[in-house]
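Blinded run. Sample ID left blank on purpose so nobody reads anything into the name before looking at the predicted structure. Input follows.
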Amino acid sequence: MSEPLYLTLLWHMHQPFYKDPVRGEYLLPWVYLHAVKDYYDMPAIVAESPGAKVVFNLVPSLLEQILDYASGEAVDPYLSLARKAPAELDPSERLFLLENFFSANKQRMIEPYPRYLELYRMGGDGIPGTAASQAPLFTERDLLDLQVWFYLAWTGEAARRRFPLFGELIRKGRGFDAGDKALLFDTQRELISEIIPLYRRLHQEGKVELSVTPYFHPILPLLCDSRIAQVALPGASLPKIDIRYPEDARGQVAHGIESFEKLFGFRPRGMWPAEGSVSDEALGIMAREGLRWTASDERVLSQTLPGGLDEEREELYHPYLFQQGGEEIALFFRDQVLSDQIGFTYSQWEAERAVADFVGRVKAVRQQCRAPRVISVILDGENAWEHYHDNGLPFLSRLYAALAQMPGVEPATFSEVLERVPERRVLRHVHPGSWINADYGIWIGHPEENLGWEYLAKARQAAVHNSTEVAQLLAGGDSSDEAARRACKALYAAQGSDWFWWYGDDHFSPHSGRFDLLFRSHLINVYRLLALEVPGELHEPIKKQRPAGFVRGPARLITPALGGAGEDYFEWLAAGLYDLTRQGAAMHAAEPGLQSFFYGYDLDYFYFRIDGSQPLEKLLQPGDRLSLHLMGGGEYRVEMQPGDGEGELQLLQEGRWQPSGGVARYWVGRSAQLRVPLPALRVNAGDRLSCYLTHSRGVNLLGRWPTEAPLALAYAGPCLGLEQGTLTDVSPPESNAS
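Blinded prediction complete.
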């Protein structure tokens, strides 16, 4: 083909609004930490890469927080305790440091630095619950080194090249003094103050296009009408109060654009909607606000097109034009495979191999498709890099260079693609969905999520009923009433997608309680600002406590592949999950060993995946055995060794392991993956199995997880997820908590 194939990389920069509106302080430090690591590094790498051309999508509520830190006015308890002299720390503050200042990727951000690794091991090797017993071991010198290393480890590679102080402190390594620490924080503040001007300069130079997201990152289609969730998930349970606030969705878009324009001096042309979530109504709002382009996921396109995507996915690689009711906006759809390779796979590859793989996949699109015009690669621009060597700089530098030199392929922004590619494939309707499963099941449908929506609806109703100014503002009008303006902002903040991301069983975070508190704090602030009585229910957590280590039960039937492909994030998104680090076992004295245990099933097999603190193929020595024990109608065992193989499903009878007739397949590499035939286990819908894992070397048992009561596994049968979307009760009984 003579026409070039354009490739657009969009990096989405986002963190939720961590500032507690009542106390005025940041409950979590992630904006600051990602600022000194990723929000600076990402544009700085582009600036130093000839021929690089990307889109940076910036969420206004994130920019607001960056400005707060740059001004020096942000009240951050993490920073306050880091600045405090160790001699002045009370016992609870010392414990806080040990529990929170190792929050970093162990492989990439702790192990490369001998002193930080030494402190990590002194603090209990990251095993939850050990910090209190280890605290007496830490001297004031140790605590000072920890204060410095936590923030030093979070500085990005490009930041270290821009500010030599960071490298000097890394080389010093230990024995930091108060002056070192003060210089560290002064320099990091200087770095943060350069972030927004750097993005502005790169846009002016034409190396990047800056785009925006609705102000507080809400799921626009659900704000417009929560019933839209049942289009993709017909059985989904919805909140008892209908959510129909299209005026709020318009307000989030309009305020996002207005804030962006004030900061950068121009109106953005494009918008990545939060979580790539679209619907006809949401697209209409974006079009009416003057936006020229937006984007979503390939699975949304597949569900939109009558025949779906063909085998080559040729339909994916074109600009589309959504038209309805006289409104129109250009649409791009992300290549899920290429995006996920960067987000979830390449971090463990050598940079050269990863770039070669990416380039090879782009070449294949150009060669195999009839007339592809644009490949859209869209993903999170911050969270992947802590898993990469040198914060992703070697990979990104090589990637930008390779794309700039690739014959027949041109890096371009979405606005440039629209200027150069006149063809538009018209869509009169889009399937309502997001970048995850082309639905909204992550954010609505679970009892916790629905309760959050109901609390939000009640707060909004109370505000509108009791304040004509609030009602006027939400309807798109204006008001000089400061309390009403702040109440509207609190409502908008509570509509952010992140609170609902952490409700339910889909995702796990040790900070989920903080997210819950922040969500309720925004709603509490609505009532307080309007001098209304705060409902007692808002003082009670929405997030329910689970048995130790339990994260979620299975949500749907799954059929994951065995092998490297089976480690894909989406393969196990609907699986049950336990956090094994909260089960109180260790592989060796210096290793926490196993970390995560996933399980699920389809009509034929029960599937399991075990992740370790390091690749299991490295953790297991020759001759070692990793065994899965299952107890239901009998006690079964499958033994695994590194590699791809089959294992006899053994049955314990009269004190000896005997062949049961069943054969399991397994793969042990970075993780251990296993499938066991369901008939061999003789389970029926509604049964509960018990499970534990062992690591043996010869006749010696080196580790068992859990050490006490086994894990409880629920088997709902072939109808899992069909009756109430993702709401089937698959939680283990409380009595099985260990």
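Unblinding after everyone has recorded impressions. The two ends are 62 Å apart (CA to CA).
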